[in-house]
Structure formats: structure tokens, C-alpha cells
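Researcher: Here's the sequence for the chain we discussed earlier.
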Amino acid sequence: MKTRKYTLLLYTLSLILLNSCIDEYWPEVSKYENLLVVEGGISNEAPPYTVKLSISSPINDNDNKAYTGCSLIIEDGNGNQEFLTETEVGVYKTPDNGMQGEIGEKYKLKIKTPYGKSYESNFDYIKNPVLIDKIEAKIESKGSNDVDHELQGYQFYVNTQIPPSDTNYYLWKLKYTYHYQSEYVIRWYYDGHLNTFYPNDSLFNCYSTASLGRFYTFNTENISKKKLEDFPLNFVSTESRQLSLRYSLLVKQHTLSKNAYLYWNALEKQNSDQGSLYSQQPYQIKGNLVNVNDDEEPVLGYFLVSSVDSSRIFVNRPDLPFYYSKCSINQGNYQQYIELGATDPVFYPIYVILYDGNRAVPGQACADCQQRGGTIVKPDFWE
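Model: Thanks. This is the structure I predict for it:
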């Protein structure tokens, strides 16, 4: 989850009824600027654990400013401490061989800033994990106001095993990877001279990995069946290249305390309202960190203490229509090859393909898959 969401969620527009009319409501936002934002946690998974610190930005800024130079400690209920090292600006990590979260133990985070401020989270316990039984993908269709046809693709679902307790609180975070290809195989490249490109398929296959921009929450307080079946997660349509060859979804199922669930559930609801003119009035979602010397100071974010179970699924290209734009070759691409010698060197190397028996210069993203954001390095986990 990107830290800028903490800024955006506080500035959601809403409408209120006044004298039977609907008026725009603009909240006072200055008090939510320049606040500490915390993102990270500890679990039963193997270390390292990461905590990101930033300072909330004004409404017209896109991103929060990373907070550097802080001292961070994770402490357990027995007084054992693990110091975090700043590995990049605003990103703090525990050692690879350091403290590992234990089921049934409690943990908290301590932060000291370069300006002498001290913050702490509440102690929270790592609960017994609820295990994932399976992740399923089903071909489904969904309506959309953005296109003139139904969206088609895979709807993903999670199923749990029988939980160890009757009431459980869940948070699901997802990361996806997909394999895609460029449209054309490179035959030559031009860097002032025309050279044979070898191996000619080395920029043809790519893999792109990212965390899903949203998360999911659920609790079993008021339901009789405690084992979850077909709980819906993300839907991936054929509007993009993600399902063009092979797609993998990694699901991390966090079992939370009730307080942690209330925070993440409120954040999920708030995020889902963003962009709607009829959303609820903005409010600060209270996390679990405080300034130890000033409990009136708002602190954004949450130090998550949870148990985690993970599961990964792979799916192949579905037998469905795809709607993403594809590359094409026209007379201009052939002409670009003829005029290679006049090309500004700032554009080197220029890739050349063979199309219908003639040499052409395609859009370079059509030949070099990396230019669509992926990498040619196959992930270790790829099947």
C-alpha cells in the first residue's frame, strides 16, 4: 500500500444536506500536513521486517516525503529489542538473522526522531494463524461504465481451512506477477552502425511484479460458518496484458487482533470512497501509535502485528477476447529504417525488425519488452 494513500484518504470530498440543498464540503486540511506516517509490521514470517516512515504532504503534492535519520526499535513483551537499520531513505529494516515474531508473543514499535520526538505503538499479540486452504480463479464477466462491452477475466477467491477459534479478523494483501512478450523479435540494432542483435529473443520475454493497490478485510463475528469459502479478492480483466500469457497471484492472509482489524477495515472503506463526490466526511482513522509526550498529536499509519499464511496461484491465458492495444507496422516504420542515419544519437540503440520481408523500425516498446515496465529476469518462483 503506497504511503501517499494516508494523505489522500484525509482529503476526501463529501456532501452534506443543508436546507434541502447539497453543498460541497471542503475540510480544513492543514492540520493533517507534516505528520508522521508509519507503515510496516512484524509477523511469524521470517525476518527481515520493514518499517517505512514519511511525513504527510499537502493536498496538492502527490507523495509524502520520506523521513530519514530516525531510530527504530521493535520490542517484545519480555523486553528483548531489535534495532532497525535505515537501508534507504525512510526505509528501516531488521537484520536478516534477527528477531522473528512468535505466535502468542506481543510486540510494539518505538521511534525516536532526529528532533527528539518519541513515538510508540501499543503492544499487540501475534495470534494463531488461520491457514489458507486454496486460492481459486474463475472466469467471470462484469459490467463497466468505462467500455462498451462487459469486462471479462479471472475473479480470484480465497478459501480458508477450519480456523482455530470461532471469531477471526482478516486482512489480505496481494502481489501479482505476469509474463508478457513484446510484439516483434529484434533482428538488428543501430548505434551509428547497423549490427546483428543476438540473441534476437533476449528482449522478447518479460515479467512484471507489483503489489496490488488495494487490500481486503473481513471478520467472522456475526456469521455461523467460520471457515471461509470463495471470499472474493481481485478481478483481472483482459483489458490489459496481465493475462496475455501467464499470471501469478501471491496472497498473504493476515490474522489480526480486533483493534488492528478495525483500523484496516476503516481504511479499506475510506479508500473505496475516494473520488466520489457523495462520500462520507473525511476523518482521521486512529492508528496504534502515539507521541509519548503529546497524545494529542495525530499520527498516521499503523504498526501491524499479525500472523501470516501465504499461498500462490498460477493461471494461463484464458480463452477470451483481449482488448489491449497492439503494435502495428505502417509505411512510416519502413521509412524510419531508411532514415536511420539521420537519427539523433540520444535515441540509440534503435531496434530493427523484419516484417513482411522488409526492415522496419517499430515503436521501441513493441520490440523491447522492458520498456513496458517489466524485467527480462525470470522470478525464482516462476513455474
